[in-house]
Amino acid sequence: MDSISNNSSLLEMFGMSFSQTKALFSMEKMIVQNDIANTKNEKTSLTKKKWLRKWEKGIEDALSQIDPNESTALLKKDEVDNLIKDEWGASKIRTWYYVLVLELVSFVPYTPLGDKNDKEFGKCKFDEKKAVEFIKTLVEEQGYVSGEKVERLDKAYDKELKKISGDVTKTVAKIAIVGFVGATAALAAALAAGPIAVMILGGGFEGLKGAALVNACLALIGGGAIAEGGLGVAGGVAIIAGGGGLLGLAGGGTAMGVGTALFESSPKYALSQAAKLETVLKEVVLNVQQDVVVAQEIIAQYKNQIGELNRALAYMEIENQKSKNEIKNMGKSIEYLMKSCRDMIAFTSAYNLGLQTDSKYKS
Description:
The protein is an all-alpha fold and 363 residues long. The protein has one domain (10-362). Helices cover 68% and strands 2% of the residues. It contains 15 helices and 3 strands. It has helices at 10-14, 18-37, 42-66, 77-90, 95-106, 118-122, 128-142, 147-165, 170-189, 194-200, 210-222, 260-265, 267-286, 292-319, 324-362; strands at residues 15-17, 226-227, 237-240. Strands 1-3-2 form a 3-stranded antiparallel beta sheet.
């Protein structure tokens, strides 16, 4: 059992190193390649290949900004397996690997990339069931997490999405999120993409401009990541994943740092992040690592961030500087976060009570 010490930062849980990040994106590339291999229609297959080339270029450009001293080329399967073996062996806290698997099962390709072919990409179908089976094979061959756990994470994420929202599936959520970002990025491109870059890539990404920056932003968020801020960040963290952005682990220490504009414009962005965070807390921190103390730390930090967002909403309403729609969306985003937080509190309390009862009967 992997236990997280009480002194370990939440950044270590949800933050991924450059190598781990490259492994994540390389495996996402394999998922798309597998989907293309199972696509019978030749025209659709060519469109999917076009999307993959564009997405991979955006990922490599983003990686070049995160650490210009490292190779950005995505890896082949044997290279990924060897890298993960090294990372697993060197890690005292292995939450990152479960977060990686969660990002894989929640990954939906063919999302907008700020490209003239975005409408064509959007028509491409993605077989989620086959993708999960493929991910199970990849993960089982690495030997650290069972195929059963992969399925459990996939089902848990979908369950949390539906429970928090009422009915939204991961495909609908991802398309809505990236679709919004695509529209915002298209507008931002005319302004050198500054705001959208800060929201998603963080500061210090001056090497990309215009369309290349938009593509990198959309590829990165489509891959399930938010950059922590560039080379030299604390603990060697390159990206924040698994909903960790809601804990203020990226972009200046508050949930607003990952993009208040995202909450104002896309409640489904808040929804997907909340569902991921809740999945990590339940399925990894509690069910795998059995660490109630860390679960309580996550909840405390989450409550603080929701409080910050509520204050931001109150300011928006008083100052009347935002449109009614933006205020409404911000309120809906906070509603999703509060709903997931209440469920996390209830689950953790019940889990802790169960442990105490079990311990009482054993003693």
